[in-house]
Amino acid sequence: MSYQQEKELALRIVAEAAKLCQRVQKTEGGKAVKKADTSPVTVADFGAQAILCQGLIKEFPDDPVIGEEDATLLQKPQLEGVRQQIIEQVQQSIPSATSDNVIDWINWGNGKVAPRYWTLDPIDGTKGFIRGDQYAVALALVEAGEVKLGVLACPAFPRENGNKGVIFLAIRGQGAVEIPLEGGTATPIKVDSSSNFEQLYRIESVESVHSDRKVQTAIDQRLGLTYAAKQMDSLAKYGAIARGDAHLYTRVPLPQFKGKKENIWDHAAGVILVEEAGGKVTDLDGKPLDFSVGAKLSNNHGVLATNGVIHSQVLTAIQQEK
Ligand SMILES: Nc1ncnc2c1ncn2[C@@H]1O[C@H](COP(=O)(O)O)[C@@H](OP(=O)(O)O)[C@H]1O
Ligand SMILES: [Mg+2]
Ligand SMILES: [Mg+2]
Ligand SMILES: [Mg+2]
């Protein structure tokens, strides 16, 4: 399948959602409210989800959508001001939007896994967005448990010419490309397939509780990595591997989060990006990530993304650390 219609829509709505995020960052800064699990969420997270879902409803009304956010929180009377800001921000992108529309679009992301579905993270790396660091708008199409298309907008991603802002796109069997966020030429990207660990870079989250740093350091020592790990928020890490800026990314659940599983939207678009750029992604046991079970990667334990050539060696080092 060529996925031409899906590709055009995904590129358009992800770019539009990224614009909203940039606009909110300029006007509101990093203002956030707390969700029930105490994690932060901003006007931009909700607004971007509304824009993404609106586009998907229009062109693919039969496809379920599984997104991170939910508008229930916005019913709280003390969040009326935030609700208004979200509506105004969405109206700047979609002038005909009513307040009911916006809430319905956000809640469209409450879909369930099906033979074909979309999953999205309106802002991955909300903490990075709040700090003014990396974040990503992520959208992926999954069929029969396999990611078929992934788009990542990374508005703060550095480019060679000194500008910032990249869209990464990958379609199964068609390779991976990067496109300037403001539009322009799509440039094919490939992993860096070096296998000399002394010269390879591991990349990790900025947030230290998202992966076990003690285990990671032990794995690095086993592999003979000499460079300090690069740090980056969000799915942009997958982009860094896909374009050869880094070579391995491990996400090792911390003992205190034992049993907590990864969200599908935190990985889907990144997985296809790395795979189509020539790399490999599995869990820490070497199993493919299973996107057929629900909103969580319940059948998997942690994540390992590499340039491909070093994958089995890294898996062996991980097994030895268990
Ligand atoms: N204890 C934990 N372990 C693993 N991932 C976690 C976590 N707490 C939060 N996260 C996820 O980590 C994501 C950010 O990833 P990263 O560390 O790579 O920047 C968050 O996405 P959101 O920012 O979309 O909420 C959130 O879903
Ligand atoms: Mg996320
Ligand atoms: Mg998010
Ligand atoms: Mg979140």
From TrEMBL:
Q: Where on this chain does Mg(2+) bind?
A: 68, 121, 123-124, 266
Q: Which Pfam families match?
A: Inositol_P (PF00459)
* One GO MF term attached to the UniProt entry: metal ion binding
The reply on keyword Metal-binding is: yes
Look up the signal peptide feature and give its range.
none
* Reactions accelerated catalytically: a myo-inositol phosphate + H2O = myo-inositol + phosphate; 3'-phosphoadenylyl sulfate + H2O = adenosine 5'-phosphosulfate + phosphate; adenosine 2',5'-bisphosphate + H2O = AMP + phosphate; adenosine 3',5'-bisphosphate + H2O = AMP + phosphate
Key words of the record? Hydrolase, Magnesium, Metal-binding
Has keyword Magnesium? yes
Q: Which InterPro entries match?
A: DPNP (IPR006239), Inositol_monoP_metal-BS (IPR020583), Inositol_monoP_superfamily (IPR051090), Inositol_monophosphatase-like (IPR000760), Inositol_monophosphatase_CS (IPR020550)
In this entry, which stretches build a coiled coil? Answer: none
Q: Which GO terms describe its biological process?
A: phosphatidylinositol phosphate biosynthetic process; sulfate assimilation
Q: Which cofactor does it need?
A: Mg(2+)
Protein family membership: Belongs to the inositol monophosphatase superfamily.
Looking up NCBIfam families in the UniProt record yields:
bisphos_HAL2
Task: Specify the protein name.
Answer: 3'(2'),5'-bisphosphate nucleotidase
From the broadest rank down, the organism's phylogenetic lineage runs: Bacteria, Bacillati, Cyanobacteriota, Cyanophyceae, Oscillatoriophycideae
